[in-house]
Design brief:
- Helix content is 39%, strand content 14%.
- It is of the alpha/beta class and 633 residues long.
- β6, α14 and β7 form a beta-alpha-beta unit.
- α5 packs parallel to α6 and α13 runs parallel beside α19.
Length: 633
């Protein structure tokens, strides 16, 4: 009788990674093993992203660099900062969170970015670009003021470096000279292609004859390492431009920051060698590494924009397994492309969000009336102001969360002179998986506070088109705010007439009336369906309110309910209460919306339920107000 055969477990595809649960485990590996570890990390990143719809290309590109940083530095004692944080998946895996990667961007799971409250290894909470250098400067100054001894390293992409905040911080760093290592992760990308003079400098640097000659000399010097690095760098100033570029042609050196590079950002062993030495130098140093976004995945390397943040996909073929639908961003892009064909004054500006804002087709059809200013929201708004002053009708296409960064420019540069600028505000309201850093739930409140700015919330693509056309034909600044998600496509050439500041009755009823606009209107209609006496108003304009209709419904109704996908502090509900106070009406009002707290990542529907503003929550309030609400409506 034969012996039973044992069931053999298949060999792990990540044998080295399986041994690494912390930076201390990483340091036990031989340097010769680091390239294999980086390859295994990339394989794991692809697997996780394929089922989760996460940030893929940027994480693949930064993997070798992250391995080198954690191999040399001692996190969490040493502080490693990542600008934006969407490229830090390898960092999460190497700091004990690999077993939780399937929860990234899911309710109760890991953040898609670095987050201080998530791990002691996450130096900053981040999600917006260009903040790492100022944070790193503050940490270095705190270290020195308190007499402590730890290293600070900030990883910033060349895309983030286009942001004025990063450049301003770099200027201060060069002036104060703190001990600080800055890793410039140069992949020629942010989300869209990088633009501007700094990007041209990066590209030009790599093709200069002196640089190419210096690069070869530098490689030989690296291989020979037989002298102290200080001597090597002193000689490099005159003999090898691989390490230093004169201030006459290098903006970093001109700012007083030591410059090293460019070097291969995928040669992990060379990166280890450099970081070991550069992190001990006095003063600030920039290490310029050149990486490939999407590294190791052929289709992501070929189209890093598409694979920046894809939906679910088959890792073997790259074929999408996510459903496709017509998005609000596409609806805006189609509308403004048509409108620009009719009006030569229309000019669209975006801060590095061509794909996200639905502007790919527009940029191709109207290339001479399209401007991407890079990650510089303030520049986008004030450039629009300059255009408006000279007769154009600029449209600033921007995410709600990023418009926060240009509040003063909206107020000071646009609104004071009542300039003709239209703000197409994408991702208004809860965005879901990206969480607190990206939720667009403050725009109604901060824009309401600015005189002259008018605010509209379209319920569908037809109303979006109507509002956009109205804004482009009338004087002053207009804000058109729409959510993340999908809407019904409308035929090309659809331009309904709409008077700004007028609301629309969608369901008759004078007992309790629900006032809602945008995404919240869907919940209101569902909650009121089949309930006689409950009215629903499409309150599509937040500024100005339709005070004629508001007075009418408030006079007749026993109570009002306002619902908004915005903070309840200073938002639509507050506007209604202010108006009723001016009218000296005392109709009870229940204000539903996002509470005065940051909302963590989860599905949009889950966050709305948690906030108490979804269909079920509205029905609960109706019942509390005495409406006979069946268990199932």
């Amino acid at each position: 009788m034969s012996e039973p055969t044992a069931h053999l477990q298949p060999a792990s595809r990540t044998p080295l990674l399986d041994r690494v649960n912390s930076p201390d485990d990483l340091k036990k590996l031989a340097r010769e093993q680091l390239p294999q570890l980086a390859a295994e990390l990339r394989e794991e990143i692809v697997r996780v992203c394929s089922v989760g719809g996460l940030h893929l290309a940027s994480s693949l590109g930064a993997t070798d660099l992250i391995v080198a940083l954690h191999y040399v530095l001692n996190s969490p004692h040493d502080r490693i900062l990542f600008d934006v944080g969407h490229q830090a998946y390898a960092h999460k895996m190497l700091t004990g969170r690999r077993h939780l990667m399937h929860t990234v961007k899911k309710e109760g799971g890991l953040s898609g970015f670095t987050k201080v409250s998530e791990s002691e290894h996450d130096a900053i909470t981040v999600g917006h670009a260009s903040t790492s250098l100022a944070n790193a400067l503050g940490m270095a100054l705190a270290r020195d003021a308190l007499g402590q001894d730890y290293k600070v390293a900030a990883v910033i992409g060349d895309g983030s470096l286009t942001g004025g905040m990063a450049l301003a911080a770099l200027n201060t760093i060069g002036d104060l000279q703190p001990r600080l290592l800055i890793i410039l992760n140069d992949n020629e990308m942010s989300i869209s292609e990088n633009v501007g003079a700094i990007n041209r400098f990066m590209r030009g640097l790599q093709v200069q004859k002196w640089f190419q000659e210096g690069e070869e000399a530098g490689k030989k010097a690296v291989q020979a390492v037989s002298r102290p690095l200080a001597e090597l760098m002193s000689r490099a100033k005159s003999s090898t431009r691989h390490f230093f570029d004169p201030a006459s042609v290098n903006p970093f050196a001109a700012m007083g920051v030591r410059y090293v590079g460019p070097v291969d950002g995928h040669n992990v062993q060379e990166l280890v060698w450099l970081i070991e030495r550069l992190s001990d130098l006095d003063g600030p140093t920039i290490l310029h590494v050149v990486t490939k976004k999407g590294k190791g995945l052929s289709y992501a390397e070929a189209d890093p924009i598409k694979w920046h943040g894809p939906g679910k996909f088959d890792p073997a073929t790259g074929e999408s397994t996510s459903s496709s639908a017509y998005s609000w961003s596409s609806a805006f892009g189609d509308a403004v492309t048509e409108l620009a064909a009719q009006d030569p004054r229309t000019f669209v500006i975006t801060p590095a969000m061509r794909e996200g804002s639905g502007l790919v087709r527009y940029s191709q059809v109207h290339p001479h009336r399209y401007l991407d200013v890079g990650i510089a929201e303030e520049v986008a708004v004030t450039t629009a102001a300059g255009m408006a002053l000279r007769g154009l009708r600029p449209v600033v296409a921007i995410y709600s969360t990023f418009l926060q960064r240009a509040y003063d420019q909206v107020l000071h540069d646009v609104a004071i002179e009542n300039l003709n600028v239209t703000f197409a505000i994408d991702r208004g309201g809860i965005v879901g998986a990206d969480g607190a850093t990206h939720n667009g739930v403050f725009d109604l409140s901060y824009l309401r506070s600015i005189p002259n700015v008018r605010i509209g919330l379209p319920k569908d693509a037809a109303e979006l088109r109507a509002m956009l056309k109205y804004a482009q034909e009338h004087p002053g600044p207009f804000a058109i705010r729409y959510p993340r998600g999908n809407t019904e496509r409308v035929p090309e050439g659809t331009w309904p007439e709409l008077q700004w500041g007028t609301w629309e009755r969608l369901q008759d009823g004078d007992d309790v009336v629900i006032l809602a606009g945008g995404k919240a209107l869907e919940y209101a209609r569902q909650a009121a369906a089949g309930l006689p006496g409950v009215g629903v108003v499409n309150a599509r304009f937040v500024k100005p309110l339709d005070e004629t209709m508001l007075r009418e419904v408030a006079t007749r109704a026993r109570a009002l309910i306002t619902v908004e996908d915005n903070t309840v502090v200073g938002g639509f509900g507050s506007a209604v209460l202010e108006a009723l106070n001016r009218m000296e009406l005392r109709t009870p009002v229940r204000v539903l919306g996002i509470p005065d707290a940051f909302q963590e990542h989860a599905t949009v529907e889950s966050v709305h339920a948690r906030a108490g503003m979804d269909t079920a929550a509205i029905r609960t309030v109706l019942a509390e107000l005495g409406v006979d609400v069946p268990l199932e409506v």
